[in-house]
Design a protein that fits this description.
Blueprint lengths: L7 E7 L4 E8 L2 E6 L13 H10 L17 H10 L10 H7 L8 H12 L21 H10 L3
Antiparallel strand pairs: 1-2, 2-3
Helix pairs in contact: 2-4, 3-4
């Protein structure tokens, strides 16, 4: 059992998103980011990453690249999401661009494009792994959250 003080579920209401930002943390790594209307009953409102996300949602640029995210999925999907993490704040990419920047993928391959869309849709930590920066791909965040994140970054 993880006994680190920040392990567990943490959530805070975001006026900008008009819902909560909820984090699942274990061993100092982000397991999940979600945007529920109502957070888990036992969610703690205090966490340094929630502080950063709050500042980001108030307009402070942050790419969250230094945040350790547990990428517990197939290697090919993990590589897509790791490439996505290199997209800077305020920049937009396409699925094709993401294919070009992910080792071993071919932007003209329909199978590789399906792989990218599947990885984006299954992203465990939207916002921290910025799937909202992919203009023609799905986001794991609810549509209203995705649109607000895109608007915040001028995309």
């Amino acid at each position: 059992m993880d006994t680190q003080p920040d392990a567990g579920i943490h959530a805070r209401r975001s006026p900008y998103l008009e819902r909560h930002v909820q984090l699942g943390i274990a061993s100092g790594r982000v397991l999940s980011v979600s945007f529920p209307e109502t957070p888990e009953e036992d969610a703690d409102t205090d966490h340094p990453l929630l502080d950063r996300i709050e500042r980001y949602l108030q307009g402070t640029a942050d790419d969250f690249r230094d945040v350790d995210v547990a990428m517990t999925m197939a290697t090919d999907r993990r590589e897509v999401l790791e490439s996505l993490r290199t997209v800077p704040y305020g920049e937009n990419v396409t699925v094709g661009t993401l294919a070009r920047t992910t080792p071993g993928l071919d932007p003209s391959s329909e199978d590789d494009q399906v792989l990218i869309r599947t990885a984006l849709d299954g992203n465990p930590a939207p916002l921290v792994v910025p799937d909202h920066r992919v203009s023609d791909g799905p986001s794991a965040a609810p549509p209203s959250v995705e649109q607000r994140l895109r608007s915040l970054e001028g995309l």
